[in-house]
Amino acid sequence: MRTLNYLLLAVRNPAESAKLYTKLLGREPVENSPTFVLYVLPNGIKIGLWISGEIEPAPKPAGGIEISFTEENDDAVRATYREWSQLGVKIVQEPTRMDFGFTFVAEDPDGHRLRPFALADDPR
């Protein structure tokens, strides 16, 4: 059986990206080199920031998927929005209610989409 537990993000500068992701994830990386940075989250998922110039075959531009963060409720989504806005993260969708719940979308400096959300009580 295969297990999905690792996300690799192509980034221009792993050290610069790590400064942001350390704040977004609330933890320090377990590996930190000039070409690769690795985070291990409490649920076991690993997020790697890999220098895009060394990935073969060359990666396509970011933005085709989203990394989602489950929040406890709408207030937590709003708090994350305020926190990330203060960090200077590019907001591409303001906090809004959608079919599945309350959410907003941000992008990291490399264009990777980040979506915090709180599920609606009765998502359709």
Spatial order of the strands forming the largest sheet? 1-4-3-2
CATH homology superfamily name of the largest domain: 2,3-Dihydroxybiphenyl 1,2-Dioxygenase, domain 1
Number of strands: 8
Give the helices and strands as they follow along the chain: EHEEEEHEEE
Mean of pLDDT: 94
Structural class of the secondary elements? alpha/beta
Q: Over the alpha carbons, how many angstroms does the gyration radius reach? A: 15 Å
Poorly predicted parts: none
CATH class of the largest domain: Alpha Beta
* Helical residue percent band: 10-25%
Indicate the CATH topology of the largest domain: 2,3-Dihydroxybiphenyl 1,2-Dioxygenase, domain 1
Shape: globular
Q: Per DSSP, what share of the residues sits in E-state strands of 2 or more residues?
A: 35-45%
CATH-derived architecture of the largest domain: Roll
Main sheet record: 4 strands, mixed
Number of helices: 2
Cα(first) to Cα(last) distance is: 31 Å
Number of domains: 2
Please provide a written account of the structure.
There is one protein chain. With 124 residues, the chain is an alpha/beta fold. β6 (90-98) and β7 (101-107) form a beta hairpin. It is built from 2 helices and 8 strands. It has helices spanning 14-25, 74-86; strands spanning 6-11, 31-32, 36-40, 46-51, 66-70, 90-98, 101-107, 113-119. The strands form 2 sheets. Strands 1-4-3-2 form a 4-stranded mixed sheet, with helices on one face. It has a 4-stranded mixed sheet with strand order 5-8-7-6, with helices on one face. The model has no long low-confidence stretch (mean pLDDT 94). The N and C termini lie far apart (31 Å).
